[in-house]
Design goal:
Blueprint lengths: L2 E5 L5 E5 L4 H11 L3 H15 L6 E3 L4 E5 L3 E6 L22 E5 H16 L2
Antiparallel strand pairs: 1-2, 3-4, 4-5, 5-6
Helix pairs in contact: 2-3
């Protein structure tokens, strides 16, 4: 998973992930941003997952949800939870590649730590 963190013209942090991981870009930039309380809550949940205190963790966002389990991480746009009309022509598939992304837990931990350091100015 390739990514970079930059600051926009207003100085706000922006995450840019490669194609196939675009939803992580939105999640880090818009849902997580500089919210240190959320960042700490996620690190705490990761420790609870690793020590098997919990089996999964879900962080509801405004537009994108974060789902963690002991092995994988998924960020998923809430738009995917809207039921498609039954009248769609047979064989029609909804495009969702920019609405869902995933990675392994260890990769996510590294990215989250990098993001935390970036938004803290470290």
């Amino acid at each position: 998973m390739n990514y970079q963190f930059i600051r926009d013209q207003q100085g706000s942090p922006v995450a840019e992930f490669n194609m196939g991981s675009e939803t992580f870009s939105q999640w880090f930039t818009q849902e997580l941003s500089t919210d240190h309380h959320k960042i700490e809550a996620i690190f705490k949940a990761i420790q609870e997952l690793k020590s098997q205190q919990i089996k999964e963790f879900v962080l509801q966002g405004n537009e994108i949800n974060l789902l963690l389990d002991p092995d994988e991480v998924e960020v998923r746009s809430k738009i995917l939870d809207i039921q498609a009309p039954d009248e769609l022509p047979e064989g029609t598939q909804l495009y969702d590649q920019e609405s869902i992304s995933g990675c392994g837990l260890e990769d996510f931990i590294r990215v989250l730590q990098s993001w935390s350091d970036f938004v803290s100015g470290n």
